[in-house]
Design a protein that fits this description.
40% of the residues lie in helices and 23% in strands. By secondary structure, the protein is α/β, with parallel strands linked by helices. β5 and β6 (122-127) form a beta hairpin.
């Protein structure tokens, strides 16, 4: 495990094809940097390639992987399944808190199938693909992520 490192994975078929710009990846990368994480990459993958992209990100052994997109109910949305297949332990409270935060602003937040957990010592959190959903998710992680990463490293201090 590489301490205080992170990978951001944007799951968007349109962004991967270059037909739609991505705003959520840079938002997450900036937030991670502000919280003391070195961001290896902001990777864009199509919905069809998300399982491979998640496995590739895990192979780099970052402390954190945050995905954005592919958590809805569209027939092509596969991020929750791709991430869940890699998890050693689920953290349902994080996903529930992110949905609850989003519900304060929009009822469609209830449609998110986002998941969170730990895979091979890496924290993985899936966020919605909208900037608002990402901001809600990051607000929840603001009080949790550093503590969680510290716990996984054998500590418990919260910075």
């Amino acid at each position: 495990m590489r301490p205080r490192t992170a990978i951001v994975l944007v799951v968007s078929t349109r962004a991967a094809a270059g037909t739609h710009g991505d705003t959520t990846g840079p938002l997450i990368a900036g937030w991670l940097a502000e919280h003391g994480f070195s961001v290896d990459a902001v990777t864009i993958a199509s919905d069809a390639e998300v399982a491979t992209a998640v496995r590739d990100a895990l192979a780099a052994s970052p402390a954190v992987i945050i995905t954005t997109g592919g958590t809805g109910v569209s027939p092509t949305d596969r991020t929750p399944e791709a991430v869940t297949a890699t998890l050693d332990a689920e953290l349902p409270g994080i996903a529930e808190a992110i949905r609850a935060r989003g519900l304060a602003a929009t009822p469609t937040a209830a449609l998110s199938r986002g998941v969170a957990g730990v895979a091979r010592g890496t924290v993985i959190v899936t966020l919605p693909g909208s900037p608002g959903g990402v901001r809600d998710g990051l607000a929840v992680l603001d009080g949790l992520l550093s503590h969680l990463v510290d716990q996984l490293a054998g500590g418990g201090a919260h910075d």
